[in-house]
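FW: tagging you since you asked about this chain on Friday. Here's the raw sequence from the shared folder, copied in full. Didn't touch anything.
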Amino acid sequence: MPVPSAAAERLYRMPATDCLTTGGMSGMSITGKLFGRGGSEDREGPETDAGVSRKAVSLAQQGRFNEAIGCFDRALEEDPANVKMWNNKGVFLDLIGKDQDALACWEKALAIDPGFAPAWVSRGMLYRRRDRLDEALACYDRAVELNPDSAVAWYNRSGVFVAMRRLDEAVACYERVLSIDPHFVAAWTDLGYAHFLQHRHEEAIACYDRAITDDPGGVRVWSLKGGALYALGEYRKALECFDKVLSIDPKYAAGWSMKCSVLYHLGMYRHALTCADKALEINPSCELTAQVRKMLLSLIQKW
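HL: got it, structure written out here
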């Protein structure tokens, strides 16, 4: 069965708050997110846990989700007590919106091993995406109780606090993540965004710069840095950031829209109009950019 487009998009472009289970930087592959780093389960070979999941990821990225889930089913026939396979099967079921089936997989994993923290993280992620924030937080609380050194558990817990606008608690969690893994790019990025929401723009920029050091090709972090500079009135510096965004991804409509806004504030209306046209060519449904375009045309006609 072809994968629903929304699920395929989540496989290719996982949001920053969607690190899957155990360990590591935001730039990890999906398989890496499923299994973490450095364990014996990551040895090469088609029959290892990591090998099964790599095959499942490859199938899912082709839209062959039923076959991908079948990989876990076959592994579980051989080893019904494999909590990692139960967990990862649940992650894939979650990706295609089968909430109850996914929850049943995590319940099975926890029935076998009540101390298996990744199943709590996976369950928390489902609840978070359904805006069941209190339930998500309870899952992450249990995960960090079981594994206080899990950077991903602390990271996902931070995201719930941001959604709740409990920003001081979110910042404390992001700082805990970074004490465990100083190269966790998404945590630096989201710590910066939490500071931005607190109107601590210079601290936000410092975090974005730290993320860029480890991942200079990240569109999101360059966009957020540009937004923070824009908020400070540093329009020339913001423009440099949005130019960088568009050099990485010329089809990023929001990048053209943000560049349009900066050029407007710099009084460069014709250049801003060109950017608005680019943005609308990529995303014709953006009403805000369409409104800005009309305003720019009016200003240009008055000249």
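FW: The CA atoms of residues 185 and 215 lie 7 Å apart.
HL: agreed, and Residues 287-302 form the longest helix (16 residues).
FW: great, closing this out.
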